[in-house]
Amino acid sequence: MSDFVAALPMYDWPEMRSEVDAQWARLRDAFRQKGIDAPQNIARFNADLRPVEGGIRDAAGKVIAPDPATLPPGELYFHGLWLHPALLFAQTCWGPMETGLSEHVQVIGQPSYDAFEGGQGELYSSAIVMRA
To answer: CA 3 to CA 113: how far, in whole Å?
Structure first.
C-alpha cells in the first residue's frame, strides 16, 4: 500500500468517473514503472486522506489546513488535498495557484483543452501539481 495520495478532482464528476479512473490508471502505471509507489486509487473524499494530527503545517510550523480527519468524510476539501504532506500528484485550477497555493506545490504539467470550444489558451487549463 502506498503512503502517497493522488487525486484528479477538477473534472471528477460522476458522469466522468470512469474516464478519470482510466486516466489515473495510466498515470499510476507510469509512476510505478519509474519506481514511484503511486496509490492504487485516487482520493475522492477527506476520508481517503491520512489524518495529520494537529493539522497540516507549512515549513515554519504554521497550520495551513485542518487535519483531514476533522473534516466531513464524504466531502473533499481541496486545500487539505493539495497541502497534504503525502501528496504525490493532484490537479488544481489556476485561481488557487495565484492566491498562495504556488508557495506549497510545484506545477509539473498542464493538460491541453485546445480541441474543445472555449478551451484554447494556457490560462484555461488546470495545472498538475505535486508537493514542493
So the answer is: 31
Look at the chain and count its residues.
132
Q: Are 46 and 82 in contact (CB under 8 A)?
A: no
Q: How far apart are CA 2 and CA 87, in angstroms?
A: 11
Q: List average pLDDT for each run of 10 residues in the chain, which is 132 residues long.
A: 90 92 97 97 98 96 97 98 97 90 91 73 66 70
Amino acid occupying residue 69: A
**N-term to C-term CA, the chain:** 23
Report which DSSP code applies to 125: S
Would you kindly state where each structural domain of the chain is located, as residue ranges? 5-131
